[in-house]
Design goal:
The protein is α/β, with parallel strands linked by helices. The chain is built from 20 helices and 14 strands.
């Protein structure tokens, strides 16, 4: 749709050229109209910080909620607006571009973020249209002076169609461009949709189910640390439910901050996706030949898997060495493993053989939880889908293979290594692990990873590697390969 001329009508609403002008509309809220409500303002501040400062929603939003004193339903509404808007950003921007008659990137950033929040309310919540429009116009009045008329017109245009009608109007046909259609309909970049489809064997129906699940608010999973907490008792204590697959998982119900739970505060449990629990546990249960007392986590930050492995190691008389190259993340690992038989090394995991505390052929179990694109946890980190680019892959896959080669040097003959990524992208999973194993010069065999996961767990494929999925297992999309050194 081309740009419209000043004064042209759009959906029955007269639209003026509303680019901000010096000295216009600088007043506060009109007499009798309340100021912007706190939940919406909190959501705006969080979305603006993510888009303006490259902040992370899971870090900035809790701080904003605390600062503004929002709890209960107000905090839940602000959280829904923030995460929902960030997840649906691609679709919202396409709709706003059409409704505004100009590319959304040409709209003043504060107004753009406010419009995104307003459009999300109109298309994805039960907020009445008049309330979504008026509250967003009030917000624009405080952050984008001179743009209230523009905002009102755009939002009324958005409200003229429901989401399905907008998708039908703007998305390319599913029959001729399935990737483009799914990308716009379910708000993922096309390259990510294509990567998901490839990892799912080209099954577009299952790809669609994955994209839908990616846009849902994920539950919070707790890990009851073995020897310190019983998962059934922890579920009773927290009002949660024991997990479906991990023997340590508890699903939390409702909102609230899990960090405020007594079990988390005193170290009996930690927040960890069930998929991460499963892949760490798989390393611990895979059979090894010979002794079993020296374990290694080669990429340990921020410490969730080290915390679980350290607790298991404590029960079995083993000791874990946790390696983290970033100093601040090494401190997080130390905090996460306090009181457990874990030694934290602030060094580069690729230095196996050069670092005296990381000798070659020394460790019985090695975890390589490699840095990756994080495409498997987009439901928890919604801004990541818009920040990651295909150009990120070469550097990441090179690092993954270097770390895996180091891990293979570190594991002793008869020992086992787990290669893990929180991404289903085949370049980061099958290609990285097979290439690293082939080039290592070390005799290794793939162990069927399915045997190290709970009996009867569905949807694990043909082996020997395993890919977990949000839509199949309710977990992040964790990849697991187990290798035994010959």
């Amino acid at each position: 749709m081309g740009a419209r001329c000043p004064g042209q009508r759009r959906g029955g609403v007269r639209v003026r050229d509303t680019a901000p002008r010096r000295g216009t509309d600088r007043r506060g809220p009109r007499s009798g109209r309340p100021p912007v409500d706190q939940p919406r303002h909190a959501a705006y501040e969080a979305v603006a910080a993510v888009n303006r400062d490259d902040a992370y929603a899971n870090l900035v939003l809790p701080a904003i909620l605390r600062e503004q004193g929002l709890i209960g339903r107000d905090a839940a509404f602000a959280t829904e607006l923030t995460y929902g808007t960030l997840r649906r950003l691609g679709t919202l921007d396409a709709i706003l571009t059409s409704a505004a008659g100009r590319d959304v990137q040409r709209i003043d950033p504060p107004v753009r973020d406010a419009l995104r929040l307003g459009a999300y309310q109109l298309l994805h919540t039960r907020v009445p249209a008049h309330a979504a429009v008026s509250s967003t116009v009030d917000l624009v009045r405080t952050v984008g002076q001179g743009a209230t008329g523009f905002a009102n017109a755009v939002l009324r245009e958005v409200a003229g169609r429901d989401l399905d009608e907008w998708v039908s109007r703007l998305a390319p046909p599913l029959e001729t461009d399935p990737i483009g259609h799914l990308a716009l309909a379910y708000s993922h970049p096309q390259w990510i949709v294509r990567a998901f489809a490839e990892a799912l064997g080209g099954d577009l129906g299952e790809t669609t189910r994955l994209l839908i699940e990616d846009n849902e608010r994920p539950p919070v999973h707790l890990c009851a640390r073995p020897g310190l907490a019983d998962p059934v008792e922890l579920a009773d204590e927290t009002g949660g439910t024991p997990g479906a697959f991990s023997p340590y998982a508890v699903y939390l119900d409702g909102g609230g901050s899990p960090g405020d739970l007594a079990a988390v505060a005193d170290g009996r449990a930690h927040v960890q996706d069930e998929g991460s629990q499963l892949v760490a546990t798989a390393l611990a249960v895979a059979p090894v030949d010979g002794p079993d007392g020296r374990w290694l986590d080669l990429c340990a930050g921020p410490g969730g898997k080290s915390g679980l492995l350290g607790a298991i190691a404590a029960q079995r008389g083993a000791r874990l060495t946790a390696v983290e190259v970033a100093e601040h993340r090494a401190r997080l690992v130390a905090n996460a493993t306090r009181g457990l038989p874990v030694t934290v090394l602030n060094t580069d995991g690729r230095l196996v053989g050069a670092e005296p505390k990381l000798p070659e052929r020394h460790f019985d179990r090695v975890l390589v939880d490699a840095p990756c694109t994080g495409l498997g946890s987009l439901r928890r980190r919604p801004e990541a889908r818009w920040r990651r680019q295909p150009s990120d892959l070469p550097a990441l896959t090179r690092l993954q293979r270097e770390l895996l080669a180091a891990g293979l040097r570190a594991v002793r003959p008869g020992g086992v290594l787990a290669y893990v990524t929180c991404s289903p992208h085949t370049v980061e999973t099958h290609v990285s692990v097979t290439e690293a194993a082939r080039r290592s010069g070390t005799p290794v065999d793939f162990v069927d990873a399915r045997s190290a996961l709970p009996t009867g767990m569905p949807g694990l494929g043909d082996g020997p590697t395993v890919q977990l999925w949000p839509h199949r297992h309710g977990t992040d999309a964790m990849f697991l390969a187990l290798l035994r050194r010959g």
